[in-house]
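Entry 0007
Protein: Flp family type IVb pilin
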Amino acid sequence: MKTVLLRFLKDETGATAVEYALIVCVLSLTIIGGIGQVFNSITWLFSDNTSRLANAFAAP
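Output (structure tokens):
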């Protein structure tokens, strides 16, 4: 039993997959948070009626 436990503790084959999964998770959360910030900025940019950008797209 002791040899099985020691072999299990030395085995690192699944560690790479777990590390890649954690990296993908962190990157996806960062991208989702960034998209939310961009959406808020664009909404603020077009919500101001005195904005030149909002007036440029307004119907004449």
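Curator remark: Residues 1-58 form one domain. The chain has a mean pLDDT of 81.
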